[in-house]
Amino acid sequence: MSGIFGALIVLTLIKATPLIYAALGGVISERSGVVNIALEGMMATGAFTAVIVSYASHSALAGLLAAVLAGALVGLVLAIAATRFKVDQIVAGMGINLICSGAAAYGLVLIFNQPGASAQVPALGRQYWLLVLLAFALAVALQWVLQRTPWGLRVRACGENPRAAAAAGIDPLALRMWAVTYSGMLAALGGAFLSIGELNLYSDGMTAGRGFIALAAVIFGRWNPLGAAGAALVFGFFEALQYVLQGRIAWLPADAMQALPYLAALFALAGITGRVRAPASDGVPY
Known about the structure:
The protein has about 290 residues and is an all-alpha fold. It has a domain at about 20-210. The protein contains 12 helices and no strands. It is globular, with a radius of gyration of 19 Å.
């Protein structure tokens, strides 16, 4: 029994890590006033880029860095669309999700000549535990940055009232662009953890809706870094639980167990409906 609980704890930490990175990215973006539906696409971009660069350079670290840069680029695209061109943020985010996921699927065929999983690539190995620790450290650091630093105050001001922020000498458009770019970097780091941390390959659809679960963690965590990380940990627990329960409950279908994290996110959001408030200007173009 103790072995089962130990395995559950370890799996929970591993499964929660990519969700924490993406959720922290979502917190930064939405605290600045930009709804980030594109977390799924950013994670897919990070996962695919990490594999491709690792494969080409024979270095998992190079793949990790390239994933972060690719995520920054995707975040910048969303930022420009949402701020400079005032595109509807939901539409822009969903468009990025479709483009990034489709481009990664096409890239598998183009580079590896197969529509399924890519060839095996260098992985982080046991070093991925450093990324697990970094995820929790970043949650604490981001909490401090948003609450205790001038930059964090500016971010929160732009998310609540960008016109008042502008009157105080802050450029809401520039700040939102930086915030969404940072959001892309974090979400892509979560995707890279999936492909070269947990595994050593990219398969089509491997993010499997984790970006949307991370978005649920942002809401469930009340747009607070530590709250979002805690919610991601809860969802990671339910994802880990399906692996622990497989083969132990004969009457429970495998599909039902795979749905556990998604059901948890659905019930969590349903349970807090009407009891949380997003930043006042979240999703409102300036």
